[in-house]
Here is the input.
Amino acid sequence: MTWIRTTALPGAEEALRLALEGQRALYPKEYATPVGAGGDSIVSAHALMPQALFHMFAGFGAMMAPDLPLSRAQHEMIATVVSVTNRCFY
Here is the structure.
């Protein structure tokens, strides 16, 4: 559980709701279903700064765009190697 105050999408103010919806729209469709125990996530930990949340996570969505010359498998491999290098567990 994060110690940072988070807000779920249903209770979000307009700026946060728009930021969450905007960055989610850029993610691959496979990311639409949350994996794990609940609402705690690296994205929701940025809820206090909606504009930062959008720009940081929309960047990842843009890098996973299906119209780029890399395959989806190559995108996932790059994301995995970066996470391992950064010692991320997610």
